[in-house]
Amino acid sequence: MSNISLRQQQVIDLISEQEYCSIDALAEHFAVTTQTIRRDINKLCHLRLAQRHHGGVSLPTTLVNRSFLARSTTNQDEKRAIAAEVVKHIPDGSTLFLGIGTTIALIAEQLVNHHSLRVVTNNFQAAYILSQHDHIEIWMAGGKLRTSDGDITGDSVGKFFDKFSADIGIIGCAAIREITPLKDPHTLCVSSHDEAEFDEYAMEHELSEAEVSQGILIGSKQKWLVANSSKWHRKANAKVANLTQFDRVFGGKNT
């Protein structure tokens, strides 16, 4: 792009790879002052090429998720570390529900040494990975294949998960969002002394995705969420569940 500098293009490249970068980390990376980086960010935000956050910058907010291939190239080391930690806590002989997302697919990659697993999923990539291993039983939901997302959606998917009961249900999400709860549903307002209170929710871009994830959680004895640090800097609009509903959350703001 001729209207941005080489460093500003490199900033875009970095946030495309990592989804979120702090101002301090960018200043250190380019060996410039934080004020210089802030000027770069201001220009990129003005051009709608980036979105400012407190202390950092991310990709612009979008109402739709990026493709599976694009997402699989971002935060790879962090996602693999999260997947490795998840797999350590999965006992042999478990029945697993696996939801959608790139971190879930990485979990599938690392399940190869487990025995007597039954995996129920609508994650096409995860099912394909596991299909190379005869000792893992796979049940795949039927419905519309979203080729760019590598998963299957539709009303039949929720009904499919209803046919099973899982020891552990593992889902990802598009974002973690802080939402201020309504204390009085009749007045539709929050009292002044509660203004600082909020709940953190796992969110998805589409209602159909959120509903499938909710079905996974309902049918699971243990409810696990995987979320790399970039999820706290993104936005999505469809509620999945309050973070307090999960037995384990792998990953976090500062992972």
Write a compact overview of the structure shown.
Pfam families: DeoRC, HTH_DeoR. It comes from Vibrio ezurae NBRC 102218. The chain is of the alpha/beta class and 255 residues long.
User: Low-confidence runs (pLDDT<50, min 5 residues)?
Assistant: 66-70, 190-196
Strand content: 15-25%
Cα-atom radius of gyration: 20 Å
C-alpha end-to-end distance: 33 Å
- In spatial order, strands of the major sheet run 6-5-4-9-12-14
The percent range for helix content is 25-40%
CATH class of the largest domain: Alpha Beta
Shape: elongated
Number of domains: 2
Largest sheet: 6 strands, parallel
Query: CATH topology of the largest domain, what is it called?
Result: Rossmann fold
Organism: Vibrio ezurae NBRC 102218
Keywords: DNA-binding, Repressor, Transcription, Transcription regulation
GO molecular function: DNA binding; DNA-binding transcription factor activity
InterPro entries: Carb_Metab_HTH_regulators, DeoR-like_C, DeoR_HTH, NagB/RpiA_transferase-like, Tscrpt_reg_HTH_DeoR_CS, WH-like_DNA-bd_sf, WH_DNA-bd_sf
Written overview of the protein:
- This protein is an alpha/beta fold and 255 residues long.
- The chain folds into 2 domains: 6-58, Arc Repressor Mutant, subunit A (Orthogonal Bundle), CATH 1.10.10; 68-251, 3-Layer(aba) Sandwich (Rossmann fold).
- 34% of the residues lie in helices and 25% in strands.
- The protein has 9 helices and 14 strands.
- The protein has helices spanning 6-18, 23-30, 34-46, 68-72, 76-88, 102-109, 124-130, 155-162, 207-218, and strands at residues 20-22, 51-53, 56-58, 95-98, 117-121, 136-140, 144-146, 151-153, 166-171, 175-179, 199-204, 220-227, 238-242, 248-251.
- A 6-stranded parallel sheet has the order 6-5-4-9-12-14. A 3-stranded antiparallel sheet has the order 1-3-2. A 3-stranded antiparallel sheet has the order 10-11-13.
- β2 and β3 (56-58) form a beta hairpin.
- α5 crosses α6, α6 packs parallel to α7 and α8 (155-162) packs parallel to α9 (207-218).
- The longest helix has 13 residues, at 6-18.
- It is elongated, with a radius of gyration of 20 Å.
- This is Putative DeoR family transcriptional regulator.
- Residues 4-59 form the HTH deoR-type domain.
- It comes from Vibrio ezurae NBRC 102218.
- One of its GO terms (molecular function) is DNA-binding transcription factor activity.
- Keywords: DNA-binding, Repressor, Transcription, Transcription regulation.
